[in-house]
Amino acid sequence: MAADRVSPAVRSRMMAGIRGKNTRPEILLRSALHERGLRYRLHRNDLPGRPDLVFPRYWAVLFVNGCFWHGHGCHLFSWPSTRQEFWKEKIGKNIERDQRTVTNLLNLGWRVGTVWECSMKGPTRSKIDDIANSCASWLNSQEQQLEITGDAEEPIG
């Protein structure tokens, strides 16, 4: 097991600084959707998973997920080399919770979209306008789910 390069106190401060909401990708997407005239509510705590963006008019929600924290199998995700069991358990629970959340939202009649961090960052990123256009098209469709990853858009049923 490799030693951490920083002290436990510094690592704790670094991890505490990672935001769960109002992240840069989320704010970029919100701005682009707002420019298209789409109105939404933020982080409604009365819905499973507290979706990042809620579009009541369309009965749709969007999550803007970080690839590491949600265990996305893209180029941005890699397992940490230290405390591997801890991270496998933590990220595994996040993945299970995400799946439960999507199922619960669908059962409540909501449509669910996920925009992954890798769609906005790194070598496979898309233009934010393309991502926002895909989201807007999905909102106006009858598709139950949407997933935008890397440089691809994947409607799910």
Please, could you describe this protein's structure?
The protein has 157 residues and is of the alpha/beta class. It has one domain (19-156): Endonuclease, Chain A (3-Layer(aba) Sandwich). The chain is built from four helices and six strands; from the N terminus they run ααβββαβαββ. The protein has helices at 8-16, 24-35, 84-107, 128-139; strands at 41-42, 53-55, 60-65, 111-116, 145-149, 152-156. A six-stranded mixed sheet has the order 1-2-3-4-5-6, with helices on both faces. α2 (24-35) crosses α4 (128-139). The longest helix is centred in the middle third of the chain and has 24 residues, at 84-107. It is globular, with a radius of gyration of 17 Å.
Mind sketching the topology for me?
Elements (H helix, E strand, L loop, with lengths): L7 H9 L7 H12 L5 E2 L10 E3 L4 E6 L18 H24 L3 E6 L11 H12 L5 E5 L2 E5 L1
Parallel strand pairs: 3-4, 4-5
Antiparallel strand pairs: 1-2, 2-3, 5-6
Helix pairs in contact: 2-4
As for the number of domains, it is 1
Can you tell me the overall shape?
globular
**Largest sheet entry:** 6 strands, mixed
In helices, the fraction of residues equals: 25-40%
Radius of gyration: 17 Å
CATH architecture term:
3-Layer(aba) Sandwich
Low-confidence stretches: none
User: Taking strands numbered 1, 2, ... along the chain, how are they ordered across the largest sheet?
Assistant: 1-2-3-4-5-6
Structural class: alpha/beta
- Top-tier CATH class: Alpha Beta
Order of helices and strands: HHEEEHEHEE
| Distance N to C terminus | 43 Å
What is the CATH superfamily label? VSR Endonuclease
